[in-house]
Serine protease (Streptomyces katrae), 284 residues
Amino acid sequence: MRRPFARALAGALTLVAGAAVAPLAQAPTAAADSVVIGGQPVKVADSPWVVALASRDRFGGIRDGQFCGGVLVAPTTVVTAAHCLGRQVLGGPVDSVADFRVITGRTELRAPDGREIAVRAARVNPAYDPGTNAGDLAVLELAEAVPADHVLPMAGDGHPGYEAGTGAAVYGWGDTSGFGDYAYGLRAAQVTVLDDEVCRRAYPGNSDGQYRADSMVCAGDRSGGKDACQGDSGGPLVARGRLIGLVSWGRGCGRADSPGVYTRIAPLIDFVSGLQRGGRPSGV
Ligand code: 4AZ
């Protein structure tokens, strides 16, 4: 059976179409101690644009209710995966975010550091297709602004970060093993942006889902073991200093034959910027 892949959707939220392209984490090839999968602890002070999305009502107090990641692209603008929002009116306002908190400046989820900011409004990419996961992006408008130097610029089409072979980093508080070992501390893993043809071969469109180069980018590690996993969804894939992708889906976690699939940012810059009040998010 095709199953939802976001912790948000695995939790109390309702699926839009009841279908999603990725299975929950399967047995990974990564060693159990490889931790994101195959990552290392990092400090949010060095990557202040990484945020945690939390809902204590829905996901309890453990790890402060974290269920997805997100990225600050302007002082009051976070982008995350559309599938993190659960029930939604495609293209319309989302009414289910009242209890969402965007946590900034908190490396360790059990610590009181940083700030929790309410979400004033949320908007799902109208082109998001929950069946194929194409265009998996939503924009959260924050009730309070963060400092301007906490934002990460988005990468437009010409940015070299999209070239196959480019080193990239993925950040999150998600599953570190593929067996539900969610992190308390922020982690990052170094991955490589892969050729679209490699991504298409990995996900040709069977029950595991289909890679679409116009709206997705895929990245992984030749020998596996470095990847995003459940709970990392919506978090950033960064290459050459810019946001190129958001953690979206994949077959399991850390498998050499199954790279992580990310929402491609470039085609969505106009959508994100168009929602911006008081200063557009930057993009090239
Ligand atoms: C998930 O379940 C998920 N390995 C996120 C990323 C990947 C797999 C699953 C990529 O949210």
About this structure: The helical segments are 7-10, 56-59, 196-202, 269-274. The longest strand covers residues 115-124. Residues 5-6, 22, 227-230, 232-233, 247, 249-250, 253, 260 surround 4-(aminomethyl)benzoic acid (CB under 6 Å).
